[in-house]
Specification:
By secondary structure, the protein is α/β, with parallel strands linked by helices. The chain has 8 helices and 19 strands. The strands form 4 sheets. Strands 1, 4, 5, 6, 13, 16, 17, 18 and 19 form a 9-stranded mixed β-sheet that branches. Helix 4 links the parallel strand 4 and strand 5. The longest helix is centred in the middle third of the chain and has 18 residues. The relative contact order is 0.14. It comes from Flexivirga endophytica. InterPro entries: Capsule_synth_CapA (IPR019079), CW_Biosynth-Accessory (IPR052169), Metallo-depent_PP-like (IPR029052). Belongs to the CapA family. It holds the Pfam family PGA_cap.
Length: 338
């Protein structure tokens, strides 16, 4: 059974402008070239880094994110089955935006893992079923409302969102959620983590600590990492894998200079990857996993199309992504898709 996961989906103003079609939007052309990889997977999960339902002045501007409902339609048509919604932009449109996002995703046919609309509906796990597996997805972030310097700040209007802040609940809280998901029938537990340092391909000690403790617990089968906006390595811990960061799937990000291999690069923020994880269960129930990946890059000059990257089509981007995801000894054994 295969699960495809992607990097950050960020509808910056220029992305929205490129998708504008009269009074509406069409995001299909942006995803068209990577849609076959997404659709080929049994389950496909994105990182939705924006509230949905925004119109007019509420659309993305500056550091505030907001996307129309059509963005969810575009993700679904591309082949995604659901998304993580816990990130630093979750509350950019306040609590109404959290509620609208849930409603719009449901109407589009997308599952959601992240802060729920009210205390009675905590918002996770998202549940997927494929080829005899029941998969639970959980989602956590260092902040959900961009309170700078305070990773324990809980939005006053949504105290239940504390359950999506990993610095508030800690490893033990995530493990508790994972055990609960298993108790309710999940065969696999996937954890989305919005963590790390932006535009830094080096994995932080905090990322490694959480990954080591979660994967060694036996309660978490795979960690989906996002937020750094550049690709980071894959690591296997106690037989289970973590992709520390999948980079940017769709964005107009340009700021900053990325530290890469002793050099400085402004290009890596438009690199991303689709990781395709294959889970196999043997006759006694033991689950093993392997990874293949599709390097991608956002073509900002031609309509923000997400292009699959090959060694021939874009040697520099190919080298950046393949080298970093397989760095540190490539304990995942990750190989590019052909």
């Amino acid at each position: 059974m295969t699960v495809a996961v992607s990097g950050d989906e960020i509808p910056h103003p220029a992305v929205l402008a490129a998708a504008r079609r009269g009074p509406g939007w069409d995001f299909d052309p942006m995803f068209a070239q990577v849609a076959p990889t997404i659709r080929d997977a049994d389950v496909a999960i994105c990182q939705l880094e924006t509230p949905l339902g925004a119109t007019g002045a509420d659309l993305s501007h500056g550091f505030v994110m907001g996307a129309p409902a059509a963005f969810a339609t575009g993700l679904r048509r591309a082949g995604f089955d659901g998304c993580s919604t816990a990130n630093n932009h979750t509350f950019d449109q306040q609590l109404p935006g959290v509620r609208d996002t849930r409603t719009i995703m449901q109407r589009a046919g997308l599952e959601a893992a992240g802060p729920g609309p009210d205390a009675a509906h905590p918002g996770q796990p998202a549940i997927y079923r494929a080829k005899g597996f029941t998969i639970a997805q959980l989602s956590y972030s260092y902040t959900v409302d961009n309170t700078v310097g305070n990773t324990r700040h809980i939005p006053p209007a949504a105290p239940w969102a504390a359950g999506n802040l990993y610095d508030v609940i800690g490893v033990s809280g995530i493990e508790k959620d994972a055990r609960a998901a298993r108790a309710h029938g999940a065969d696999l537990v996937l954890v989305s983590m919005h963590w790390g340092e932006e535009q830094d391909q080096k994995v932080t000690s905090e990322q490694r600590r959480f990954a080591t403790e979660l994967l060694s617990s036996g309660n978490v089968d795979y960690i989906i990492g996002n937020h750094p906006h550049v690709v980071q390595e894959c690591q296997r811990i106690d037989g289970r894998m973590v992709n520390y960061s999948l980079g940017n799937a769709l964005s107009d990000q340009t700021a900053g200079i990325v530290a890469y291999g002793g050099k400085r690069s402004t290009d890596a923020v438009q690199d991303g990857m689709i990781a395709v994880i294959t889970f196999k269960r043997d006759a006694v129930g033991k689950v093993t996993s392997t990874e293949k990946f599709r390097p991608t890059r956002v073509d900002r000059a031609n309509g923000y199309v997400i292009r699959p990257v090959t060694k021939r089509s874009d040697p520099a981007s190919w080298q950046r992504t393949t080298s970093v995801v397989r760095s540190g000894g490539n304990s995942c054994g990750a190989t590019p898709l052909r």
